[in-house]
Write a structure and sequence with these properties.
single chain, mainly alpha, elongated
Length: 100
């Protein structure tokens, strides 16, 4: 595996945290902050996926297949990981505050 492949895999690693992210934080404000950060990231990835899908129609079959089988797979994996992290932080906020 080369450096580029390893870097791509690192981006979708389930346990990967962002710099400064501490899942054991006891502060509700931290949980709100990280829920928002991950919401922003998820939204960005979703918008990126939408743009890629719009541009696919301009590509030939081989190029389209390459984008669908690599780029879109990674983008969707990242989007889904960001969604799970946002949910983690929303749940963490509810746990810390006792709010439903």
């Amino acid at each position: 595996m080369n450096d580029k492949q390893e870097a791509a895999l690192d981006q979708v690693e389930e346990g990967r945290l962002l710099p400064g992210e501490r899942p054991d934080s006891q502060h509700p404000d931290d949980a709100l902050h990280w829920a928002e950060v991950y919401r922003e990231l998820r939204t960005f990835k979703e918008e990126t996926i939408d743009r890629v899908l719009q541009e696919l129609v301009k590509l030939g079959d081989v190029a389209r297949y390459e984008i669908e089988s690599t780029d879109l797979v990674v983008l969707r994996s990242e989007r889904d990981r960001f969604q799970r992290r946002a949910e983690f932080w929303r749940n963490r906020y509810r746990t810390l505050t006792g709010k439903p």
